[in-house]
Design a protein that fits this description.
The chain is α/β, with parallel strands linked by helices and 546 residues long. It is built from 20 helices and 18 strands. It has helices spanning 3-13, 26-33, 44-57, 72-86, 111-114, 131-143, 181-193, 204-208, 211-221, 253-260, 310-325, 333-352, 361-371, 385-390, 413-424, 436-442, 446-451, 474-480, 489-495, 509-521, and strands at residues 18-21, 37-40, 64-68, 91-97, 121-124, 150-155, 197-201, 225-228, 242-246, 263-267, 285-290, 304-307, 377-380, 402-403, 429-435, 457-462, 499-503, 526-531. The longest helix has 20 residues, at 333-352. The chain binds thiamine diphosphate and magnesium ion.
Length: 546
């Protein structure tokens, strides 16, 4: 058995049935021979994004794998690996490497050395005998602890070698750790005694599949729940205790309740300070439950730390809180949540229902939300204004129906996420919402969706501009039109063999969405291009609170 065949066999034993990639990487051919479907993209970044979504939507139970060429393929992959790293997504990255005798000679790109800063682990294969050990380490890192890419670089000359017999590989274990019981008791007492508690849930809830336990704790305490952008959909946003998700833009209830909180209980979150997450107010007391002890006291100071899996943590807390309060508390706060929400939505209603031409993007996205079956839809935004226009207003009802991101925010990430989501959940409607800047980065991979029969719905908000840059680049815009961009993207979608429609009439917004959905049901990816105004208003002003 050749080395490539042994690696494909290891992948199969770990449950891998699809491999994203771009040639040349000999793993792709070995994988295909072993019955693992290779999906070839048009640029490496998008394959990484698809692998990323596969891992996210299975809570890491299935691991997304991406394989690329040494040199250019690996160089071009850097962005996708870095994006997964910033979002803590477990993916297996398999660059081919230069032959061992050249791997460390300038100017050859050495993936292990160059990607160490954006991976959880990065290891070269130096001899065939070590392959089972190396993959055991990589998969253990992927299946345990906080996620992130694990990289194994396989030198091209190694593929010519036979795997030394006998060799063995058993799939790795996945285990969990839980918090110190003394800290659970302290935390439960603080939760019960808090006058104005806010629970802030991150994506650790998704990976631990701790959705029911989160809901149980919130309902026991009658406490409002906000999420991070990554944690969006970890708590049903149509629940009377839901505040919504905090990104760069957010529903007003999020800062309103954070501002008046005495205790904030973060669970499955890192509290990372980022322009695309809500800033935590100062002067609050924090309980921080996280899988990664390195996150404790990173950006906020914790009074109480709970290190461990979110499900184990929440279950321990629920038991202790139940013991302390004996029966669930009422939810008087739900009335205030509803009031703040209504006042906020009333203010946005003119935009959400606008019939102006070109369209308000808010109107398009509001019509989208009332047309699709939200509970059976998986949606993601893209970098730029579309994220801020979608995330605050989209009411995610079921776990893992919104792919939130934004620790780093590379334009063009959303397309591959929607495609990976469709592969993971073929029965769901999978949507990416992007602007004309984002499509400029990864639009070519709409062809991959057509060719590989991945029928996503792509909602493009085309305002022929990088609108959000206009206030930042007024001189370049006026003197040189530097923020203008252009394209007929519906035509592009049709040219690739997909369904493409440009929409300019408000009366056609909903019918066009229905036509797009119909196409996806027939197996055809659809791109709906809505011509929008250069909207830059964002739901981030803070009016409420104390
Ligand atoms: C790879 C990358 N480069 C640059 C940026 C910075 N950036 C964020 S949004 C944006 C322009 C957004 O334009 P568009 O998506 O068309 O939205 P609009 O503001 O026009 O609605 C830029 C340049 C980025 N996020 N990613
Ligand atoms: Mg634009």
């Amino acid at each position: 058995m050749k080395v490539g065949e042994a690696i494909a066999e290891i992948l199969k034993r770990e449950g891998v049935d699809v491999i994203f990639g771009y040639p040349v990487n000999h793993i792709l051919e070995s994988a295909a021979s072993a019955g693992i479907r290779p999906i070839i993209v048009r640029q490496e970044r998008v394959g990484l994004h698809m692998a990323d979504a596969l891992s996210r939507l299975t809570s890491g139970r299935k691991i997304g794998v991406f394989a690329m060429q040494h040199g250019p393929g690996s160089e071009n992959s850097f962005g996708g690996v870095a994006q997964a790293y910033s979002e803590s997504v477990p993916i297996l990255v398999l660059p081919m490497g230069y032959a061992r005798r050249l791997a460390h000679i300038d100017p050859n790109f050495n993936s292990v050395a160059s990607m160490r800063s954006v991976t959880k682990s990065a290891e070269p294969v130096v001899s065939a005998t070590e392959i089972p050990n190396i993959f055991r380490r990589a998969f253990s890192r992927l299946r345990n602890g906080r996620g992130g890419p694990a990289l194994v670089e396989i030198p091209i000359d190694l593929f010519a070698e036979e795997m030394p017999e006998p060799w063995a590989y058993e799939p790795v274990i996945a285990t969990r750790c839980g918090p110190d019981v003394a800290d659970v008791c302290k935390a439960a007492a603080a939760l019960v005694e808090a006058k104005s508690l806010v629970i802030y849930a991150g994506q650790g809830i998704h990976y631990a599949r701790a959705w029911d336990s989160l809901k149980k704790l919130a309902e026991l305490l009658g406490a409002p729940v906000a999420t991070s952008l990554q944690g969006k959909s970890s708590f049903p946003e149509d629940h009377p205790l839901a505040l919504g998700a905090g990104g760069n833009a957010f529903p007003r209830a999020v800062p309103h309740f954070l501002a008046k909180a005495d205790w904030i209980f973060g669970v499955g979150c890192s509290f990372t300070e980022t322009a695309f997450g809500i800033a935590m107010p100062t002067g609050k007391k924090f309980i921080h439950a996280t899988l990664d002890p390195n996150h404790l006291n990173k950006d906020v100071r914790a009074e109480i730390g709970l290190v461990g899996d979110a499900q184990l943590t929440l279950d321990a807390l629920c038991a202790e809180v139940e013991r302390l309060i004996q029966k669930p508390r009422p939810w008087p706060v739900s009335e205030e949540i509803a009031q703040v929400r209504k006042a906020w939505l009333d203010e946005w209603m003119p935009r959400l229902t606008s019939s102006e031409i070109p369209f308000s993007p808010y109107r398009v996205l509001s019509d989208l939300q009332r047309t699709v079956d939200v509970a059976n839809t998986i949606i993601t935004h893209d970098a730029g204004s579309p994220r801020d226009q979608l995330a605050p207003f989209w009411v995610a009802k079921r776990p893992l129906t919104y792919i939130g991101w934004g620790k780093t925010t590379q334009l063009g990430y959303g397309l591959g996420l929607a495609m990976g989501a469709k592969l993971a959940c073929p029965e769901k409607l999978c949507i990416n919402v992007w602007g004309d800047a984002a499509i400029g980065f990864t639009g070519m991979d709409f062809e991959t969706a057509v060719r590989e029969r991945i029928p996503i719905l792509s909602i493009l908000l085309n305002n022929f501009s990088m609108a959000m840059e206009i206030p930042i680049m007024p001189v370049s815009t006026e003197k040189y039109r530097a923020t203008d961009i252009s394209g007929d993207y519906a035509a592009m979608a049709r040219a690739f063999g997909g369904y493409g429609e440009r929409v300019t009439d408000p009366a056609q917004i909903v019918p066009a969405i229905r036509r797009g959905i119909e196409q996806t049901q027939k197996g055809v990816p659809a791109l709906l291009e809505f011509i929008t105004c250069k909207e830059i208003a964002v739901s981030k002003q803070y009016h409420g609170g104390h």
